[in-house]
Amino acid sequence: MGSWTEGTGPARAALEILSRRRGPFALFALAAFLGAGLVTARTTRTWRARATLSIEPPLRNASGLEGFTAVVFDLPRYIGTQQERLRSPAVLAGVLETHRERIAGLPEFAGREGPELLEALARAVSVEARPDTYLVDLSFAASDPREAAAFANDLAEAACREGVERDAERGGAVARLVSEKIVELEGRLAEAEGAVARFQREHDVEAFEEKVTLHAADLGRAVEALTAADLELARREPPFRAVEANRDPEGALAREARVPAVEEDPVVASLEREETLLALEIASKERSLGPNHPDLLGLAGRRSALEGRLREARALAARRIESAWREAEETRGKIASLVEARERALADLGTKRREYETLLARAAEVRELYREFYRRETGALLPGTESPGATQAMRVESIASVPIRPWRPNLPLNFGLAAALALFGGFGLAFLLESMDETVRDRGDLDRFLHVRTLGLVPWVRGARGILFARIADREPQHPAAEAFRGVRTAVYGAAGEGPRRILVTSAGASEGKTSTAVNLAITLAQAGSRTLLIDADLRRPRLHEVFGLPRGPGLVEAVGRGDLSGVRSTEVEWLSVLPAGGTVERPTEVLGGEGFRRLLEIASRQFERIVVDSPPAHLLADGRVLAARADATVLVAWAGRTRRRALAAVIEGLQALGASVSGIVLNSVSPRSPGYGYGYGYGYGSGKPSASKGSPRALAGASVS
Question: Cβ neighbours of residue 599 under 8 Å, at least 6 residues apart?
Answer without folding.
Answer: 563
